[in-house]
Design goal:
The chain has 279 residues and is an alpha/beta fold. The chain has 7 helices and 13 strands. Helix 6 packs antiparallel against helix 7. It is elongated, with a radius of gyration of 21 Å.
Length: 279
């Protein structure tokens, strides 16, 4: 099945014979999210059904004026869903009007009428519907009446016993604790940006739309998103490069190893800290 993204209210013909659904915001796709998605994928494969991830865009907190720095903007999150085995993403456009949708309406309109759900996977702290009135138990009760199963996956805990959450990862990045953040993500923290040359010949990219990294100097794996950008006269550049992060900007200094100016976006995977700013 080809991976597809559907927007709220669109028909989803791939679910005619049923689907397995995982629900959540999944910002950053950390190991706690992976526990939900991996369990859902196993069930989908065993039942021969597509795995559909239901997510909300923008983040519901943003709609009510609470800024949430994103670990993964929607397009990147959807691509990550594909990489971990999702067949479909169903993105609900979250608005103040949509927030008035009751838990029962969400189940009927989205899970049953649109996705023909057979099994739902959620985190055990999942809340949904108007005033967050729905919870895993009420969803299970609705499932029993509507003929679908519900599995709530236990929280993944950090070594200090605190729940692994996207907020925790954001806080660690802000503090410059990259190794710990990456351990919770299960991979290197990744950012995509378009680089341009400034008047000092630095390659500079804006990364302010992502969760902020502490100012400092980092090692990154530099990946061209379009291979044609890496085919310059001087051949391939080193994959692992040092860059500075300064107030929502990333900078590569004009040294011999610096790559040329790419025409397309690049992916930067932050895998180590060289030096952090004291500010």
């Amino acid at each position: 099945m080809d991976f597809k993204i559907y927007r709220h209210t669109s028909p989803v013909p791939e679910t005619t014979n049923g689907s397995v659904v995982a629900i959540g915001n999944f910002d950053g796709l950390h190991l706690g999210h992976r526990a939900v998605l991996d369990a859902a994928k196993n069930t989908a494969q065993n039942q021969g059904l597509p795995l559909c991830v239901v997510t909300f865009e923008p983040h519901p907190k943003e709609v009510f004026g609470i800024h949430v720095p994103r670990l993964t903007p929607f397009d990147e999150k959807a691509q990550s869903m594909r990489e971990v085995g999702a067949d479909l993403v169903y993105a609900i456009h979250f608005t103040k009007d949509y927030a008035k949708t009751s838990a029962e309406e969400f189940v009927q309109e989205t899970l049953i009428d649109t996705l023909n759900v057979k099994h739902v996977f959620i985190g055990e702290d999942f809340a949904f519907g108007k005033n967050r009135a729905g919870n895993p138990q009420s969803l299970s009760d609705l499932g029993a009446n509507k003929d679908f199963a519900v599995t709530a996956i236990p929280e993944v805990l950090c070594e200090d016993g605190v729940k692994l959450a996207s907020t925790r990862v954001r806080d660690l990045l802000k503090q410059g604790k990259l190794e710990e953040a990456n351990s919770f993500l299960g991979r290197a923290y990744e950012i995509r940006t378009h680089l341009q040359e400034d008047e000092m010949l630095n390659l500079v990219g804006d990364i302010s739309n992502y969760a902020p990294l502490k100012n400092g100097v980092y090692w990154v794996k530099f990946i061209y998103n379009d291979p044609s950008d890496g085919q310059g006269e001087d051949g391939d550049h080193p994959e692992n490069l040092m860059c500075a992060v300064i107030n929502g900007k990333v900078k590569f200094p004009p040294v011999n190893e610096r790559p040329g100016v790419p025409n397309h976006t690049v992916t930067l995977q932050f895998f180590d800290v060289y030096e952090l700013s004291s500010k």
